[in-house]
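Lecture notes, continued. The same structure-token format from the folding unit now serves as the input rather than the output. Read the line below as a description of shape only.
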């Protein structure tokens, strides 16, 4: 199972590719605080990507989960640089022995300290390409559109992602 942070939802939404989550080979969930941040607050602010994410939740492609007040959650909430929503993602992932999908380095560092596996937004795009849901052109366009919309991808990571897109295309071609 993947527990998604706000960043993958927002930028897949901005790229109009949030429906790709339907092709991810594992179940995807979002903690209620992430839903509130991305959908509720996003709709109030007038962000079109908020409605796109909401539709994916309504179709059961993506489900919301509650956050239990566990010792891990309480410990994570003490991190000043970790939002309550990020703490919720990590706590849900820890409780379910799942993988947290987040891009922010501090959150990934906190996950590592807690023994929680992490992946990033690009990983989701690559996984649906590997499953044949999208081809290499669509994968590259999705990554580029997310970057154009403000998603941060370090140049060295971008090069690695593009290389992996090509490798997956060669494997399937």
């Amino acid at each position: 199972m993947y527990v998604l942070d706000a960043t993958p939802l927002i930028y897949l939404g901005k790229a109009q590719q949030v429906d790709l989550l339907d092709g991810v080979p594992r179940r995807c969930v979002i903690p209620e605080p992430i839903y509130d941040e991305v959908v509720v607050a996003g709709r109030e602010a007038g962000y079109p990507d908020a409605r796109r994410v909401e539709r994916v939740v309504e179709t059961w492609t993506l489900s919301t989960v509650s956050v239990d007040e566990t010792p891990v959650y309480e410990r994570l909430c003490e991190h000043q640089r970790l939002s309550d929503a990020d703490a919720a993602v990590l706590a849900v992932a820890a409780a379910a022995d799942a993988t947290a999908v987040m891009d922010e380095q501090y959150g990934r560092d906190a996950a590592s300290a807690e023994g929680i596996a992490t992946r990033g937004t690009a990983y989701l795009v690559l996984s649906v390409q590997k499953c044949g849901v999208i081809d290499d052109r669509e994968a590259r366009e999705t990554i580029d559109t997310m970057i154009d919309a403000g998603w941060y991808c370090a140049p060295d990571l971008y090069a690695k992602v593009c290389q992996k897109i090509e490798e997956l295309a060669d494997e399937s071609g």
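Point for the exam: The chain has a mean pLDDT of 94.
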